[in-house]
């Protein structure tokens, strides 16, 4: 399932979400321009659990391993970030995003503390945003592209189902990654436990960072379906 958009209109301009997407893309383009030197760049600014550094916990959130990696992360951040920022406010949302990224980095490091494979990507922080969305907008719907063999269909999926399935997939894959790691040093791949820890941090952190609502608006009954 590939998400295309959600159905919730935002009340404010998501300046932080736009800035984060722009910054991640610009840094990726810089990485791409380095050519062979990109490996040293990633080793310097990516998070290597065996050589843990608080500086790289933050810098690693803005590096990516390839075009599909950055494109996927930014798509999810764009879809879910604007509404979460709307409910938190700009400053609170930025702090929330970064803290979820920290939680994700610590979660992955805890599962593989001796790994010398650099961890890069905004996935953990974005997972935290998804966790917050899961709490704030359980009745939302996600417009999703669903490839069915040679057919492509666009459907609306309840957000609670979309995000729930995503989390279960990460958790099952995370268990599998631990089993694989016990057989030797992993060669790299997806940091599933960063996703899990980030999502969990988002579910918990949203109760701290969201602004109190003066009035509940049942937006799903008033949407323009045109």
Description of the molecule:
The protein has 226 residues and is mainly alpha-helical. It has one domain (2-182, 191-210): Rhomboid-like fold (Up-down Bundle). The chain has helices at residues 15-33, 38-45, 54-59, 67-88, 90-111, 123-136, 159-181, 192-209; strands at 2-6, 141-148, 151-158. It has a three-stranded antiparallel sheet with strand order 1-2-3. A hairpin with a 2-residue loop joins strand 2 (141-148) and strand 3. Helix 7 packs across helix 8 (192-209). Mean pLDDT is 88; it is low at 215-226.
State the share of residues found in helices, binned by percent.
55-70%
CATH superfamily: Rhomboid-like
* Total helical elements: 8
Beta percentage is 5-15%
**Largest sheet strand order:** 1-2-3
Count of individual beta strands: 3
Q: If you consult CATH, what is the topology? A: Rhomboid-like fold
Number of domains: 1
The low-confidence runs, each spanning 5 or more residues with pLDDT under 50, are: 215-226
How would you summarize this macromolecular structure in one to three sentences?
This protein has 226 residues and is mainly alpha-helical.
Task: Record the SSE blueprint.
Blueprint: E1 2-6, H1 15-33, H2 38-45, H3 54-59, H4 67-88, H5 90-111, H6 123-136, E2 141-148, E3 151-158, H7 159-181, H8 192-209
Antiparallel strand pairs: 1-2, 2-3
Helix pairs in contact: 1-4, 4-5, 4-6, 5-6, 5-8, 6-7, 6-8, 7-8
């Amino acid at each position: 399932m590939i998400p295309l958009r959600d159905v919730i209109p935002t009340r404010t301009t998501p300046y932080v979400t736009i800035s984060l997407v722009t910054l991640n893309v610009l840094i990726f383009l810089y990485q791409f321009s380095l050519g062979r030197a990109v490996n040293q760049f990633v080793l310097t600014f990516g998070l290597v659990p065996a050589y843990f550094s608080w500086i790289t916990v933050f810098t690693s959130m803005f590096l990516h391993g390839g075009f599909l990696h950055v494109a996927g992360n930014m798509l999810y951040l764009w879809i879910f970030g604007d509404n979460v920022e709307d409910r938190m406010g700009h400053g609170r949302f930025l702090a929330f995003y970064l803290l979820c990224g920290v939680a994700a980095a610590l979660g992955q490091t805890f599962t593989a503390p001796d790994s010398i494979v650099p961890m890069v990507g905004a996935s953990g922080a974005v997972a935290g945003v998804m966790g917050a969305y899961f709490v704030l907008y359980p009745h939302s719907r996600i417009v999703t592209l669903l490839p069915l063999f040679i057919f492509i269909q666009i459907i609306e999926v309840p957000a609670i189902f979309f995000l729930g399935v995503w989390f279960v997939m990460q958790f099952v894959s995370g268990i599998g990654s631990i089993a694989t790691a016990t057989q030797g040093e992993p060669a790299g791949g997806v940091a599933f436990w960063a996703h899990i820890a980030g999502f969990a941090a988002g579910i918990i952190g949203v109760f701290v960072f969201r602004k109190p609502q003066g009035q509940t608006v049942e937006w799903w009954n008033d949407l323009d379906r045109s």
